[in-house]
Amino acid sequence: MNSFVVVHRAPWLLPICHPLMEDGGIAVSKGKIQGVGRFSAVRHSWPGARVIDHPDAVLLPGLINAHTHLELSHLAHLAHLPAPASFTDWLLLLLAERAKAAVNIETATERIAAAASTVLEAQNKEGVAAVANISNTGLCFNLAKDFNGRLLCFSEYIGLRAEAADAILLSLQSAADSQLCTGHAIYSTHPYLLRGLKARAFRLGHIFPIHTAECAAEVELLRTGQGELRDFLDQRGWWDHSLPLAESGVVTYLHRHGLLDSKTLCVHCVHIDEAEADLLAAAKAKVCLCPGSNGYLGIGRAPLALLRRKGILPALGTDSLASNPELSLWREMRLLAAQNPSLPPAELLAMATLGGAAALGLDDQLGTLEPGKDAVILAAELRAPASTAEGIQEQLVQQGGRCPLYWL
Questions:
Q1: What are phi and psi of 182, to 5 degrees?
Q2: Dihedral of alpha carbons 238, 239, 245, 250, sign
Q3: DSSP 8-state class, residue 354
Q4: Is this prediction's pTM over 0.90?
């Protein structure tokens, strides 16, 4: 039986669910992890297994990109322009560029698909094993075959006017149960529609990602009905006074409308306070941070230290090339490391693996190296000698994506 087992050996093994260990071994059979531990112990359990050595490498789980918009990949030039003056200035430019690109539908579709496919290929080369994609058009739903990993495609619905909600919810009655659906944000999706979408997700056991407290203007709109987002909505003809105002933040609003639970994924969470972090923790809601996008848009930094104090392990997402000049989870980790110098590199690596897997409901299959999980294993070659666990993990964070990465 052991002839069907392969043991991968490396000087360092980072299971994520346990501390980094020296001279590690992983027994794999039929795409599943059978055993993890010191090489001597694993070899003793499977004495007839074939051994494959990975010198100068660290074995770790594949990364998880918990938030992106692949269908915006053809607008990569936007994130190389000077930073926008405001969030809504970027929104207006984004919408204008999308409209310009869509003049010829056939050409635009081919261009979007090609750009998105290129992004997916790059994600795989960077060690990403799963991607959560948010789509308004459905153009990227057929890209799963081009990705050597898991591609979760969410149909995102927008409709701030109350009368639009019924039509959308009625159309979803004929949708396949496998179709993942969500709403965009509280400023673009009526609460009645959000509740209907969340009820469907709850019934089907689906994850419900939603842009949450991304910019300060979102909180201002919710509390006062005024500000740059109100001006933007007026300009688009979307504002009809049907958004119920609240003297609260966005997370509190989600909670009061029954939208916050363990399968809700709050993306960004830049503008939240301690009381809202308590709400997230109590609901066991998930959080995804996108520091690269936030940095380009100039909308602030998520309170990572606060989230960690509340016991929340966030996921990481790259968002889109329209707001992030580089879609790399390794870069996202480096940005957070620079912003939070006291944060151990082990926590950043956990966010990029286990945090993402838990956020997407994949933590029974991915995110850690332990028996029973999928054998989705990454070998990252170290560029320089390191003798301590802290030093090795620091090197991974700082050099990962710039050093040789191999799928086992």
A1: -160, 175
A2: positive
A3: I
A4: yes
Q: What is the pLDDT of residue 34?
A: 97
Q: Give the total number of structural domains in the chain.
A: 2
Report, in this order, helix, strand and coil percent for the chain, each rounded to 5.
40, 20, 35
Whether residues 38 and 128 share a domain: the answer is no
User: Are 276 and 389 members of one domain?
Assistant: no
3-state secondary structure of 140: coil
Q: What is the pLDDT of residue 105?
A: 66
Closest Cα to residue 303, out of 274, 337, 335? 274
Q: How many CB atoms lie within 10 A of CB 55?
A: 10
Asked if residue 131 and residue 50 are part of one domain, the reply reads no
Model confidence over 244-271: pLDDT tens digits?
888 889 999 999 999 999 999 999 999 9
- Cα-Cα-Cα-Cα dihedral sign, residues 291, 374, 114, 208: negative
- Do 121 and 49 fall within a single domain? no
* CA distances in angstroms from 251 to 200, 257, 265, 300, listed in the order given: 20, 10, 11, 17
Q: Which amino acid is located at 48 in the chain?
A: G
Query: What residue type is assigned to position 168 of the chain?
Result: I
CA distances from 286 to 206, 297, 356 (A): 13, 23, 9
β-pair type (6-13, 50-53): parallel
CB neighbours of 367 closer than 8 A, spacing ≥ 6? Answer: 16, 61, 64, 353, 354, 355, 356, 357, 358, 373
What confidence score (pLDDT) does residue 3 get?
A: 64
Q: Encode pLDDT of 93-125 as tens digits.
A: 999 999 888 777 667 788 888 999 999 999 999
Check whether residue 46 and residue 147 sit in a common domain. no
Q: Please give the residue range of the domain that contains residue 294.
A: 63-359
Residues 276 and 158 in one domain: yes
Q: Does residue 138 have a pLDDT over 80?
A: no
- Least confident range from 72-86, 134-148, 244-258: namely 134-148
